[in-house]
Amino acid sequence: MRNIVVVDGVPLSDDHLKRIDLLGNMRIHKHPPSNRDELIKRLADAHIILVSEVPLGRDILRASSHLRMVSLWSAGYDHVDVQTAGELGITVCHAPGCTTTAIAEHTIGVALYFLHRLGEADRHVRQGGYSWERFITPEFHSQVFGVIGLGNIGTRVAEYAKRLGAKILACTQTPSQERANRLGVMFVDLEALLQQSDIISINTELTPQTAGLIGSKEFGQMGRRPILINTARGEVVDQTALLEALRIGQIRAAGLDVLWDEPPDPRDPLLQMENVLFTPHCSSA
Hints:
The chain has 285 residues and is an alpha/beta fold.
């Protein structure tokens, strides 16, 4: 009989639980392990594991002698050493597309929040003000919306932004005129996108090539003080450069669903910036 372990609180419905229970002996952990030893203990006799965000590196996989399948409750899989898994004969499954709509909706919501200065307006009223004329803002259809990474999620973000009337610029590794015509976007290089966009959505996967993709140089190229929204991975943006860009006004605001360190250090100066909206990696929820 297979041992199936839910490692870190993957949200499963009653129907999911019934179906999984038919496959073997199921053990559910509702919270992430507190340390490496606890994780190894959870995996000791597991043949199949369901995982949300717990990192599965080379040493963890090698210590899990019975493991044959890792099922990820996510589209991304950069927290699993897939090379080692392959060497050990462990199948790794992920769920591409499962988070596409939720992340796209989140992105458009954050863009509208900052574009229409809703946080500022809320604080204004709470502090006794009621001057509507202070909050005359641009309309979404007048904006140039840049999308970095045009996979499933980036494509859906572009689709939603286009429905609201924005002009869409996109930077991707696989541009083509056919895709541009089909999606109604204009493909440009990264520098042109940064220079021309009023709103920028980061939707690229994390790879050695995209780590630190947006740094001091790139912030300096942002000619229109854009709103920057990152729902991809924190490491795509140099966080020190981001803080400086916010401080000196190279960008208007940032919506961050991902960070270098999750959760962040409470002393992180980025947490003190009023023009940043934080969410706890929940855009896909």
